[in-house]
Amino acid sequence: LHPLMDQLAPDFRVIALDLPLSNRAGFKYPPTLEAYADLILAFANALELDSPAFFGNSLGGTLGLICALKDPGAFSKLVIRAPLWTRAQLPSYLRIPGLVPVHKALSQNKPYAQRILALIYQRSVQISPITGDGDRSDPSEDHLALFDRYQINPVLLSSFLGYLLDVELKGQVGQIPTPTLVLWGEQDTLTPSIWGSRLADCMPEAGFQAAPGEYHNLATTNPEELARLSGDFIGVKE
Q: Which of 96, 143, 86, 88 has the alpha carbon at shortest distance from 119?
């Protein structure tokens, strides 16, 4: 997200929390989405920020929704970019009864973690200018290179998916009072933009906007547009 941060920095104070999602940082708590949300809230409280806004990309957007449910006053505004917020978004093979505990157990095996992530991102890889050209027989080759570049642990990331299967926010997001901008790539094939429209409809103070011609990796392919949309919303005075 550094290109996006560079775009926002001239107009905002930008703070990036390096979550323990990689080999660079340890985590003394079980790696659950709720535990990570608690860490984000504790971080914001420790800095004593004055009415901070929150930006969350993909899984980070899911964490933003959980933060807002835990502490509705923590952030003045939310910019949520293509989060997973209901099991219905997930591919059908990941919603098979009984798969959650099996997936959590097997995700500790690195080859399994690599393969399940490749399956999840396969359609995205085929069209993504960042992660592949669609000619590879095994899309995990592209994503493993991406994980290595950013030092992301694929086993831990795969394990997060298992926890995500346990999280169903559909019946809760209507309780979030925070003004929210829900952003999506119009051509997102990993999680179609219809889910962004439905999320905004469920939230009392949310608006939805899709970026034409963009995919799930909007933050890396078009940070200028994402910064414009986010900055316009965050910068609007109440």
A: 143
Mean pLDDT by 10 residues, the chain (238 residues): 90 88 56 86 93 92 96 96 88 71 71 70 51 44 60 67 79 96 87 93 96 79 88 77
Strand partners, 237: none
From 43, 44, 38, 35, select the one nearest 75 (Cα to Cα).
Answer: 44
Tell me which residue of 174, 211, 185, 218 sits closest to 85, measured CA to CA.
174
User: What count of other Cβ atoms lies within 10 Å of the Cβ of residue 191?
Assistant: 21
Quote the tokens at residue 4: 């996006």
Sort residue 58 into left (φ over 0), alpha (ψ -120 to 50) or beta.
left
- Taking a C-beta distance cutoff of 8 angstroms, is the pair 196, 202 a contact? no
**Which strand ranges, in their side-by-side order, compose the sheet holding 180-185?**
53-57, 77-81, 180-185, 206-211
Angle between helices 59-70 and 154-164 (to 10 degrees): 50
- In this structure, the number of other CB atoms found within 10 A of the CB of residue 237 comes to 3
